# Entry
Amino acid sequence: MLFKKKVDTAFKSMFGHRFSENQPGLYFFKWYELEGLKRDDFSFSNRFGETIRGGLYYTDSYSYKDTLVIFSHGYGGGHISYIKEIYHIAKKGFKVLALDAAGCNESDGDGLRGFNQQSSDTFDLISYLKSNDEYKDLKLDLVGHSMGGYTSLNLLNYVDGIHKVVALAAPISFKHMEGAIVTSLISKEANRLENAVLPGWDKCNALDGAKKASNTKILYIQSLDDAVVKWKHSGKVFSKVKNPNFSTAFVNGAGHQTCFTKEAAINFKEYMEKMKKCASVDELNALCESADWNAICDHDPKTLSLITDFLAD
# Structure
């Protein structure tokens, strides 16, 4: 009973509240600050009747007019956290649809409900796109980081005909992030909680999607020093997948940010340690204003090119 209560508390703490980009101490680049990037607002309703919002991002170099890239964000941050990655993909000629999962930033909802909320929202999104004359004939590429990487792979279990997938630092599932022992301990309780709010989404996971026989080409990218989604519980397992359309690329030094330079990963870690020492919102805001966010969030062009070269091939 005590263990069940602890899992309940942890689950509610992670998923039972809204996420906002307006977090003291953190800075998010704005899409309109990036030269040449354009946005068309986009929204649709998910199965819960919530409006899911975000944007269609592109530049004047938009040339892959037969393809739509769907970008799925990681836990809590919303899609604006990845605007630099989205910008890079858009500059290479793609139109990128990036939305906030329910309970995050621009979208409606009281919280994420569970780790599969984004999978559920993206499934509903794809159903909406396929019923819309403007999008129904487009090839769909899925790109995502962390929870979003899980979402992109997990969707292959439920949706046929996806063209390509790029999964960045994706865990096998929420339960698998700490290895086999922890998975076996919390699996039953986690499934109970997830099924209470998102029934039916516990049958498959990202590894099942990676193994699924299909024509979908998949690229998995992770940094070997990832301390959040650990390589030994994720990338190492994915590297053994026997699927001719599945490939992996491993970098080192980027931490969980995957696309960061080694220097930026160090700067990011040091900044987060400084944040922990702040005793008030005023201190957090002062720290944020004094920080060099370009240095903290510098992206490695080689890793970004791994993504766009794969999509363009």
User: Anything to note?
Assistant: The chain has a mean pLDDT of 94. The first strand starts at residue 38 and ends at 45. The chain is about 35% helix and 15% strand. The beta strands are 38-45, 51-58, 67-72, 95-99, 139-145, 164-168, 217-223, 246-251.
